[in-house]
Design a protein that fits this description.
Chain lengths: ~325, ~550
C-alpha cells in the first residue's frame, strides 16, 4: 500500500451562521482503503462529503484528494472523485445506456472509449442486462447499481458513496458489499456512509465516527473497539440461582458501584459495566472463587460496531476529540 | 367539516402565502377598477354604456382569472400525492374514493369561489352605477363562472389521476381547457353554408361547450361568436347542460380511477428494435422511417456535441423524434388548412379572422409549449437531485445553460417553422405579402425568445418546477389576456394612448398588428413591442445568468 495519503483533511470546519456543522475534522485515507463514515443524522457526514467533492466550501481548514485542493481546484477534483449522492438523480424517458452515455460525454470521454466504458461499468456493477431499461422502470436496487456505474464512468480514484445499501434487500446488500470490496481491490479508495453498521464493519478498513460535527473515533474497527474497551460489559454465570445475590454483593463490594449491575435469575447471570482493567477483573474472579461460589463462566460480552457507536454517541461532546 | 380532505385541501390552500397574495392582488385590482370608473360628479350615465364597459372588463377579467387559477392546484393535487406516496395512505384509510374525490373537488372549487366572492363588493358597486340587470346579467355572470370553475376543476382532477408528473398534468389540463374554451368555437365558425341543419345544430352545441358564447351574451357581446338566428340566447342553457355533463363524466372517471386502477401502472417497455427478430427489425425500420422509431437504440453522443443538448432531447417526451414528428405534422396541417380555406374562399370568413386564427395558433402554441419545455431546466434538476450531479461533472455552468436553452430553442424553432407553410403559400400567391410575413416572423421569433427567457428565469428562481410553471403561465397570461382587457375597454373607459401602451406589452397584440389585423393596426405597436420583448428577454437572461452562477458555485 502506498504511504501517500489519497484523501486528507486538516482541521476542516464548516459553520452555517451560528451552527457548527463540522468542527476541525482531521483524517487521512490511503489507496485502496474503505472508510466507513458513521454518525446520526446531522453528524456532519454529508457536509464533509460535499466539501470533499467541491460542492461546499469549508469555513476553515482544508481538504485534499490526491494532493489536489478540494476548494480551490474543484475542476480537477471532479475527475478524481466519483460521487454517488443518496438521491439517484434520474431523468425521465431515458434508457440506462443513454444515461451513462450522457455522463461519459460530460466527462469528455471520447465516443469510441465511452462505448467500452459503458460496457465495463455495466459489467462491473452487474447491470449489463439493464442497458435498455428506462430509468423510471428501475427498482431501488437496480438504481443503486446504475448510480455506482455512473460514478465509475470516468474511472475516478476515489469513490464517495452516500448510503449505497439504503433500501436494498439482503441479497442486493450482499452483492453491493462484494462490489465495493471488488472496487477496493482494484485500487479505488472508497468512502461509504451508512446507517447499517454491521454492514460497514464487514467491509471497512477504517471507520470514522462522528456526532455533532465532531470526529469521535477514527481507525480500524479493531482499533476503535480497543479504544472503547474502558467501558466493558462483563457477565458472570453462576451454577446455582441462590448464589446470584452473593455474586452481586461481591461485585458491588469489589468495584464499589451498583451502576449498570443487573441480575437475571432466569439466565443465572450477573451482568455489569466496568472500566476496570484485566488485573482488577482477575482479582474479582479470585474473590468469587474464594467465597465458595460456583461460577461456570466469567466472560466479557463481545461488542460490535453498533455497541461501539452507541458508546461513542453517549459520551459528552467535549470528551470527543480528533485523533 | 367532516371530510378531512376538504380541511386539508381548502384550508391548507388558503394558508399558503401565494394564495393569500392572490386574494390581496385581486381585491386591490377590483378596488382600483371601481375607484377609476366611479362617477366623480355624482351623476350616472343613464344609458349604462359606461357601466357596461366596466362590467365587461370585470366579467372577462374574472373569467380569465377562473381559467388561470381554478385548475392550477387540482391539476397537480392527485399526481403529487401519488408521487409522494400519500395517495396510497389515503386509499388505505377508511376514506372512500368518493370522499377523496369530493374533498378534492370541493377544495379546488372552494378557492375559486373565495376569489369570486371577494369580487362581490366591486360587482355591487358596478351594479349600483346602473345599466346592468341584476338577475340576467350580474347573477348569471357569477353562476356561469362558478359552473365553469367546477368544470375545470373536475377536468383537472381527472387529468391529475392519469398524468405521470405534475408538469405533464398542468400541460395537459391547460391544453384541454384551451380546447374547451377556444378550439370548440372553430368548427361552427368555419362551417359556412357547407353543412346541413343537423350538422349545423351539432356544431352549435359543440360551440356551447365553451363558456365564451354564454359569457358574451351576458356581457352584451353576443354577435361575436354567433352566426345566424339559431344561436340566440340559448347558449347559456346549452352551456349549463354540457358543463354539467362534463363535470359528471369527469367526476365519474376520476372516481373509477381512484377506485381501481390508479396505483396499477405498467412500466414503460424496455425493448429495443436492434435486439428483435430480423423481420420485426426490418418492418419497424420501414414503418418508422428508421429515425422515428421510438424503440430505436440511440447513438452515443458525438465528441463535439454539447452533451446537455442530447440529454435534454432524450429526457423529454417532446424531444424524442417520433413525438417531434407528430407535433410538426399537426402544425403543418393546421397551418396549411387555414391558408387553404383563405385561398379557396369557401367560407365567408374575412382575411382578419383567418389571420387571427393563424396568429392565435402560433402564439398560443409558443405560450403553451415553452413553459412546459423550459420551466424545468434548472428547477427540475434541483428537484430530482440532478443538479448536484451536473455540478459534479466538469461541464461549466455556461455550457450547461447553453445546452439546455439550445435544446428548448431548437424544439420550439422546429414547431414554429412548422406553422410557416401557410405563410409561404400566402407569399407565393401574393408576393406583396412578404413584408407582412417577415414582420410576423420577427415578432414570433421575439415572442419565442421572451417565453424561453422568462421560463428559464422562473426556473432558476423557483425550487419547484410546478411553481416556476405557475409563475410563467401567470405572467404570460397576464401579458396576453390582462392587457387585452384594456383593449376591450377602449373608447369610453380607456384613452387610446393608454390602450397603445398596454398593447405594446402584449405579444399577441404585437403579432395581430404585424399580421395587419384592422382592430390592432390603428395602434402603432411596432417596433415598440419588439423593443419591449427584446428588453424583457435581456432582463430575464441576466436573472438566469446570475442565478445559475449562484447555484453552481460552492456554498
Amino acid at each position: 500500500m502506498n504511504d501517500e495519503p489519497i484523501v486528507q483533511t486538516h482541521e476542516l470546519t464548516k459553520r452555517y451562521g451560528d451552527f457548527l456543522a463540522l468542527n476541525k475534522l482531521t483524517l487521512e485515507l490511503h489507496r485502496g482503503q474503505i472508510l466507513g463514515f458513521i454518525g446520526p443524522n446531522g453528524a456532519g457526514k454529508t457536509t464533509t462529503i460535499k466539501i470533499l467533492v467541491g460542492l461546499n466550501r469549508p469555513t476553515a481548514g482544508w481538504a485534499r484528494i490526491c494532493g489536489v485542493d478540494c476548494t480551490h481546484d474543484a475542476r480537477r477534483i471532479k475527475h478524481l472523485v466519483g460521487y454517488m449522492p443518496d438521491v439517484f438523480g434520474a431523468y425521465d424517458q431515458m434508457r440506462v445506456e443513454e444515461y451513462l452515455d450522457f455522463f461519459g460525454a460530460a466527462f469528455k470521454i471520447a465516443r469510441a472509449e465511452r462505448r467500452k466504458r459503458i460496457d465495463a461499468v455495466l459489467e462491473a456493477t452487474g447491470a449489463a442486462y439493464m442497458r435498455d431499461y428506462y430509468l423510471e422502470s428501475l427498482s431501488h436496487g437496480m438504481k443503486q447499481r446504475v448510480a455506482i456505474a455512473r460514478t465509475l464512468m470516468h474511472d475516478p480514484q476515489v469513490l464517495i458513496l452516500d448510503e449505497p445499501a439504503n433500501g436494498l434487500d439482503p441479497i442486493a446488500r450482499i452483492e453491493m458489499r462484494e462490489l465495493i470490496l471488488k472496487l477496493s481491490a482494484a485500487g479505488k479508495t472508497i468512502i461509504v456512509t451508512s446507517h447499517i453498521l454491521p454492514e460497514l464493519a464487514r467491509i471497512c478498513t477504517v471507520v470514522a465516527m462522528m456526532t455533532g460535527g465532531v470526529l469521535r473515533a477514527f481507525g480500524t474497527v479493531e482499533q476503535i473497539m480497543q479504544s472503547l474497551r474502558q467501558q466493558r460489559i462483563m457477565e458472570i454465570h453462576a451454577l446455582r440461582p441462590e448464589d446470584l445475590p452473593a455474586v452481586a454483593t461481591l461485585v458491588h463490594h469489589h468495584f464499589g458501584t451498583s451502576d449498570n449491575l443487573t441480575v437475571s435469575e432466569a439466565e443465572r447471570i450477573v451482568r455489569f459495566h466496568t472500566t476496570r482493567d484485566d488485573a482488577d477483573l482477575s482479582a474479582l474472579l479470585r474473590a468469587l472463587h474464594n467465597a465458595g461460589l460456583a461460577i461456570t463462566q466469567f466472560r466479557e460480552e463481545p461488542q460490535d460496531l453498533e455497541d461501539a457507536f452507541i458508546t461513542v454517541a453517549q459520551q459528552p461532546a467535549a470528551a470527543g476529540s480528533n485523533p | 367539516m367532516t371530510n378531512p380532505i376538504i380541511q386539508r385541501e381548502f384550508i391548507g390552500l388558503l394558508r399558503r402565502p401565494p394564495a393569500f397574495l392572490l386574494q390581496v392582488l385581486l381585491a386591490a385590482l377590483l378596488a382600483l377598477l371601481v375607484a377609476l370608473r366611479w362617477p366623480a360628479d355624482a351623476q350616472v350615465n343613464l344609458s349604462g354604456e359606461e357601466t357596461l364597459a366596466v362590467f365587461r372588463i370585470f366579467g372577462y377579467g374574472l373569467f380569465t382569472m377562473t381559467i388561470a387559477f381554478a385548475p392550477l392546484f387540482p391539476a397537480v393535487s392527485i399526481v403529487r400525492e401519488r408521487q409522494a406516496g400519500t395517495l396510497t395512505l389515503l386509499l388505505n384509510s377508511p376514506l372512500s374514493p368518493l370522499s377523496v374525490l369530493t374533498g378534492k373537488l370541493v377544495g379546488g372549487v372552494g378557492y375559486t369561489l373565495v376569489l369570486l366572492i371577494m369580487s362581490l363588493p366591486a360587482a355591487a358597486a358596478c351594479w349600483s352605477m346602473g345599466g346592468i340587470a341584476f338577475a340576467s346579467q350580474l347573477c348569471m355572470l357569477y353562476a356561469l363562472l362558478a359552473l365553469a370553475a367546477c368544470q375545470y376543476v373536475s377536468i383537472a382532477l381527472l387529468i391529475s389521476t392519469r398524468a405521470a408528473s405534475p408538469e405533464s398534468a398542468i400541460r395537459t389540463t391547460y391544453l384541454l381547457i384551451f380546447i374547451l374554451v377556444v378550439v370548440v368555437l372553430g368548427p361552427y365558425q368555419l362551417k359556412g353554408g357547407l353543412l346541413g341543419p343537423a350538422w349545423s345544430t351539432a356544431l352549435d352545441w359543440l360551440r356551447c361547450l365553451s363558456p365564451l358564447p354564454a359569457l358574451m351574451d351576458i356581457l352584451g357581446h353576443s354577435g361575436l361568436t354567433a352566426r345566424g338566428l339559431q344561436s340566440g340566447n340559448s347558449s347559456g342553457f346549452r352551456f349549463i347542460v354540457l358543463a354539467t355533463a362534463t363535470i359528471l363524466l369527469a367526476a365519474t372517471l376520476t372516481w373509477r380511477q381512484l377506485s381501481r386502477w390508479l396505483l396499477d401502472r405498467p412500466h414503460p417497455r424496455s425493448a429495443a428494435t436492434d435486439d428483435r427478430a430480423a423481420f420485426v427489425r426490418f418492418y419497424r425500420r420501414i414503418m418508422f422511417l428508421w429515425f422515428f422509431d421510438p424503440q430505436r437504440r440511440s447513438r452515443l453522443i458525438g465528441d463535439f456535441t454539447n452533451p446537455v443538448i442530447a440529454k435534454e432531447f432524450r429526457s423529454n417526451r417532446f424531444g424524442r423524434s417520433h413525438w417531434m414528428a407528430r407535433l410538426v405534422i399537426i402544425c403543418m396541417i393546421v397551418s396549411l388548412a387555414l391558408m387553404l380555406i383563405a385561398t379557396r374562399s369557401t367560407t365567408d370568413w374575412g382575411a382578419d379572422a383567418l389571420a387571427a386564427a393563424l396568429v392565435l395558433l402560433q402564439v398560443g402554441m409558443i405560450i403553451f409549449v415553452t413553459p412546459t419545455l423550459a420551466c424545468g431546466i434548472i428547477s427540475a434538476e434541483r428537484e430530482r437531485g440532478g443538479w448536484d450531479l451536473l455540478r459534479m461533472t466538469p461541464l461549466p455552468a455556461r455550457r450547461i445553460i447553453t445546452g439546455k436553452l439550445m435544446a428548448v430553442g431548437t424544439r420550439l424553432a422546429i414547431l414554429v417553422v412548422a406553422t410557416f407553410p401557410g405563410y409561404i403559400a400566402m407569399v407565393l400567391i401574393e408576393p406583396a405579402q412578404l413584408p407582412r410575413a417577415t414582420r410576423v416572423a420577427i415578432t414570433l421569433a421575439l415572442i419565442t425568445l421572451f417565453a424561453i427567457a422568462l421560463s428559464a428565469a422562473c426556473s432558476s428562481l423557483c425550487r419547484q418546477t410546478i411553481r416556476a410553471m405557475a409563475a410563467t403561465y401567470g405572467l404570460l397570461l397576464s401579458l396576453c389576456l390582462g392587457t387585452l382587457l384594456v383593449w376591450f375597454a377602449q373608447g369610453q373607459t380607456v384613452s387610446p394612448p393608454l390602450v397603445r401602451r398596454a398593447l405594446m406589452l402584449n405579444p399577441l397584440a404585437a403579432c395581430f398588428h404585424a399580421m395587419g389585423m384592422s382592430a390592432f393596426t390603428r395602434y402603432d405597436l411596432l417596433p415598440g413591442a419588439w423593443i419591449f420583448l427584446g428588453t424583457a428577454s435581456f432582463i430575464c437572461f441576466v436573472i438566469l445568468i446570475i442565478n445559475t452562477w449562484r447555484l453552481t458555485r460552492p456554498t
